[in-house]
Fold:
Amino acid sequence: MGPHAAAQPSFHTRIALGKSAPVFRIRPAAEAPTRRDVQLNDQNAPYGGTWTYELSPGPSPATTTLRITETGFIHPPLYRFMMVHVFGPTRNLDQYMTDIQSAASKP
Structure:
C-alpha cells in the first residue's frame, strides 16, 4: 500500500461463508458520482483487479442502467480452471446484478 493509500476511502465486503474480502481502495474518478472505480488493495491476494461501476439514464425516464466492467486476474492455475470450466467467468457479476435488481425492486 502506497503512502497516499490510507487517505483514500476504503471498505471491506463480505463474501461467502462469513469471510471478509481484502480492503478495496476507491480510486477517484472524474465522473463521480456517476462512476466509481474500485481496486483490490492486497498484494498477496490470489486474485485482483479493478471494477468500474457506471450509472447512466435507462431506457425509460424512471430507470437507471448500471454497467460493471471487471478487469481482473487470477493467479493460481487451479482457481483459473475452476472459474472458466466449473463456475463460469461471469458467475459473481451475474449474482451481483441479480442482488442489485432485487434490492432496487423493493419499495
